[in-house]
Amino acid sequence: MIFFWSSGEPINNLLYAMKVDWKEVSTEMEEKKMMKIARFSRNLASRATELCYALIAVYILKRCLSMRNEGRLPFFPSYYPFSAMSSPIYELAFVGQAIGTIYFTTVYTAVDTFLAMLILHVCGQLSRLQDNLINLNSNTRQEFQNKLRYIIRRHDYLKRFVDTIEDQFNIMLLFQMLGCTLQLCIECFQGLKLMAGEGEKMPLIEMFFFAFYVFYVLLQLYLYCFVGEKLWTESNEVARAAYECNWYDLLPHEANSLILIIRRSRSPFRLTAGKFFTLNHELYSSVLKTSMGYLSVLRTTMMKDD
Fold first, then answer.
1. How far is CA 211 from CA 56, 58, 170, 184, 186, in A?
2. Using omega within 30 degrees of 0 as the cis cutoff, is the peptide bond preceding 252 cis?
């Protein structure tokens, strides 16, 4: 059975399609593959959430240590239309902002890991499709045609799955990529400026938080590019699987049917950022180079001003 999209909510359709895919598992090998991907997705979500909580904990520690020398400081540097430094308003505002930050980062991380889970699920289904292609040979012509028809329909279904993900998340990914690039540039610039200006006076916790935050942004950026690269690779592997089946044992018109699958795989599935960039390892390297290029320009400008 292959799930066909209804006119309902796209995200609900994606989740229901995943449920249908799990019900279609018929062999132990397929179950092991899907369970491996499911465990990886769960561990990814857990580790990403733990990393966010650790980042918040370091920031709170940094803020509290700064108060020893500078007195009371708000949780985030900001201006308030009321007296926020008097008790108990200060304590309530500080705790409230800390709780709000935890909730925000949890939701923020959940969206990222949910997207990664969807893409990894598609990669698992593409792996199943490759196994079906390699074991395509059949004893009867009717059985072969049924298997080939199923593979083509399955490929169409996965393409619709990816297109739905693309439609729902590509704008978000565009702003995320631009935001990560800008954050890397600004944070590295501020860090270099702070270290150059204060030298040995810069607190160790400040340096640790700066390095931790940059690491977190790089890791978040790599998550998008990693799942995009894996989707592109697994989609390309479908053509290889079609070639690796025993096509030379098939009748000429049956072997020619595989050309359709190979031709379709020449246009692999892609995850893009606003339809402008394809998320892969090449884009990750490009973003790092661009960020460092902007940082070099800012650093040169700062040195000329001095």
1. 14, 11, 29, 11, 13
2. no
